[in-house]
Amino acid sequence: MTTGGRGSTIIVIPAFNEEDSLPAVLAELEAVVPDFDVVVVDDGSTDSTSSVASDYGVACVTLAFNLGIGGALRAGYRFADEAGYSRAVQFDADGQHRADQILPLIRALDGEADMAVGTRFGGVGDYEVGLGRGLAMKSLRLGVRLLCGRWFSDTSSGFRAVDHDLLHVFATEYPVDYMDSVETLVAASRAGYIITEVPVRMGERAGGVPSQRRLRLVYHYARLVVALVGSSRRAFPPPTRAGST
């Protein structure tokens, strides 16, 4: 991995009890994108997640308590911002995100996007979801459309890349609630940031503990919609680059 600094890219990996899957994830990143740095945010794990990150020689932010995905990502973005990185990529520790799909997200940032979201439903690969989850996700897409005037095919995708303006914002403003991925889309869209969806391939979970059990998915999405409407007034600072609206 390279040494961080302004103009460079860092991969932010939130991890909770991911000692089983993390080694393969870090090895794949080293093989496919060796020029990008990595920081693992150990979100209060009770296993050897932090030790795995240290053994691979990547930076590790260890949280004393489990804050959840939003809190872990904010900590990762704060690390990246304070270290002087200009771009960051959100990447899962469970093996679902593929290292060979990172560069398409980066190219979207090169093309003036402030955020590039990897969508599982863009015609690449055969990603499928069950009937109940599919209906819930469609309802969520409609809710986001009503709140921010944009239609996103994959509102819950956590595979994302952000440019410097949003990286700086996320270091202090990233939502810490469970609907973080959706709320960031709404808040960033309403603030005028350019968000692009990029079709990507994703793999199957390799290990760790899934955040939602199958039987709770519909309930989870119903709660998320209600909470999202209640928090839709969250405002991010507007973009600073010339030409942004």
Helices and strands in order:
Elements: E1 9-15, H1 22-32, E2 37-43, H2 49-55, E3 59-63, H3 69-82, E4 87-90, H4 102-110, E5 115-119, H5 131-148, E6 160-162, H6 164-173, H7 180-191, E7 195-199, H8 217-230
Helix pairs in contact: 3-6, 5-8
Number of domains: 1
- Helix- and strand-based class? alpha/beta
How many E-type strands? 7
Q: Overall 3D geometry?
A: globular
Relevant CATH superfamily: Spore Coat Polysaccharide Biosynthesis Protein SpsA, Chain A
Going by CATH, the architecture would be: Alpha-Beta Complex
- Helix segment tally: 8
Determine Rg (CA atoms, Å).
17 Å
Low-confidence stretches: 208-216
Sheet having the most strands: 7 strands, mixed
What share of residues is helical?
A: 25-40%
Main sheet strand line-up: 3-2-1-4-6-5-7
Highest CATH level, the class: Alpha Beta
Gap between N and C termini: 35 Å
Instruction: From the 3D structure, determine the CATH topology.
Output: Spore Coat Polysaccharide Biosynthesis Protein SpsA, Chain A
Strand content: 5-15%
* Average pLDDT: 83
The H/E string reads EHEHEHEHEHEHHEH
